[in-house]
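quick one: magnesium ion bound model?
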Amino acid sequence: KSGRLVVIVGPMYSGKTSELLSYVEIYDLGKKKFKAFKPLIDNRYEDTYIVSHNKTKVNAIPISKPEEILKNIDGDEKAIFIDEIQFINENLKDVVITLRKNGVDVYCSGLDLTFKNNVFPTTSVLMSYADEVIKKKAVCHECGEYTGTISYKIVEDEKGEIDVGGFEKYIAVCRDCYTKLNKKK
Ligand code: ADP
Ligand code: TMP
Ligand code: MG
Ligand code: ZN
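yep, here:
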């Protein structure tokens, strides 16, 4: 029987990692075997954990290429969890589809959009192949409404669209506040 692919997307602080961890708990409570992975680039808190902004965490294997997921599994896992998929190359799709075909449930989470309002390709592709897409919202940092759908970068630098960080660099905002903030610049 095929597994299920669930993809959790949204802006920063929308609870993507927390939602992923809530599914980890379901397999954990059911004493089902699972493994969690995250890209090596995301070293904000600790290399071998997936950590949410409110500091709950689970052990995770750091990877730099999607193929490393297949190398690191035993074959009897019921579920695989991957956070920050926007930082993994698009071949992640092939790995995830193989796992699903082999009966493994795969839960992925990551940013759908960069702070420049461009798509993160790996997230887009995985959303298309998903059995379920969960789109989360954040509280808009500007107007306080629960309509935040995009991340806005509050510091000026030349680092480009891949730039690891947290509250010191990014806020989550709604569409109207995003437009206003970009006009002010
Ligand atoms: P993500 O992985 O999407 O960045 P996390 O699951 O790590 O999100 O963190 C979500 C938590 O961040 C929330 O439960 C809340 O405690 C906190 N938080 C901080 N700022 C905001 C915000 N603007 N909107 C919603 N939650 C926020
Ligand atoms: P988060 O979704 O769990 O908050 O983590 C998002 C990570 O992605 C964080 O390290 C900041 C980084 N990031 C980028 O590299 N580019 C972007 O455009 C945005 C919005 C975030
Ligand atoms: Mg996260
Ligand atoms: Zn707003």
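The pocket of adenosine-5'-diphosphate (ligand 1) is lined by residues 10, 12-18, 52-54, 138-139, 141, 172 (CB under 6 Å).
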